[in-house]
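Give me structure tokens for this 101-residue protein.
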Amino acid sequence: MDTLRVEWDWQHNHDPFSANEIKQNRIPKMVKQWLTERVISGLNWKSIHQLMQTTEIIQMDSDAVTPEANIIKYDHVKNLIRTRMGAAVMEHLPARLKKFT
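Here you go.
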């Protein structure tokens, strides 16, 4: 029997936990509120992304103006959806099970 052993040593080319990385990936409070409202209303990433790609927003992009919607990434939406789902589950969890969370 032939076997193959593979060792993988993946390294980031940056520190994802550095203060600078966190600052760059943080979205403004107003944008986060808008995004949260869209997630609560049931929109998924595809729908939110389509909203951000409207003609009016794309035309605003210039050297002088950068629409804040351009900084929203898939991970922002994914994390918000997971957070909201977790909160919804906790709301309906029986008290006897909440002590395990």
